[in-house]
Amino acid sequence: MGQRVAIVCGEMSGDILGADLIRALRIYWPEATFEGVGGPKMIAAGFKSHFHMDRLAVMGLVEPLKRLPELLRMRKSLIKRYREDPPTVFIGIDSPDFTTNIELALRTAGIKTVHYVSPSVWAWRKGRIHKIKRADDLMLTLLPFEADFYRQHKVPVEFVGHPLADQIIPKSAAEARTELDLPLDAEVLTLMPGSRGSEVALMSRDYLDAAAVLVEQGVIDSIVIPAANDARYTELVAILAEYDGLPVKLIRGQSQLAMSASSVVLLTSGTTALEAMLLNRPMVVAYRTSAVSFFILSKLVDTPFIALPNLIAGEALVPEVIQSEVTVERLVTEVVNQLQNSEQLARFSELTQLLQQGGSAKAAKAIVSLCSP
To answer: Which of 102, 138, 297, 350 is 20 to 30 A from 175, alpha carbon to alpha carbon?
Structure first.
């Protein structure tokens, strides 16, 4: 009889990782069965989902509280199922507030447990490390500095690399500009104010004001803004009406193509910074939130950097412009500096190679090794 693998994930990004992991595990365990909670990509890979993954995909502060009774029932049901009929291994993918408690209950019952994608325990709520240490036989991390943190706390860990590093294939600026109908010989500034409405409201006018100065100075010729979704597109159309005459091309999606076309990217902190690094594009990272939120975050978060390239490099590789520092003058200065920073791009190439670890194949090998007698 083949191995039985239980997996629980609650987000679309986890569904992608889970599907790739299923395919990688089948190389070692051809007769294995896979079940738990997963999305359409996992189901297409032969996974049986006992609940709809969407039921776990809750965000914000109020929505999880409203759904708490349902989430607790789901968790109790999964724990009961796997205690009564133990799988070969239980794997929680991301969604740590939901999966870690399952992992703890099952490991206490003698079942092998794995968590794939580290929570940001290295940055905030560091006390969670003690629970993770009790809950997991193995932590699989996407980033190298995360693995270092777990080793310091004596948690078994494997750095498996970031899937984006294997998935993203950079295009030349000329190729990307041709696809977007941008001038081939221009200095192009890509603006990425964020994927949330609050981010666009807080960041876009500063970005556009800085872009206007750069155009006036003759530093930048063209501007491209990839709207994250239809709602952001509508929001940006209204904002751009205030900037008549600015050479801006607003597009729907295609963020990686827009970054590939750029001479420099001005972006709001997040996964976009990692994508820009993997595309080998100079960047300036900015971030601002409400005064109250920033005060709370400053008390909770303990990390030297906010930009993923800096966290991975362990140094201030890209400029970070945070909160009150976000001024037109500062943004203009940093963009000009990055246009002349060839050393940054060489480091980006090194870090990209570091993140290209094989991802799912390496994760599968580590899981099989954990479960071997």
So the answer is: 350
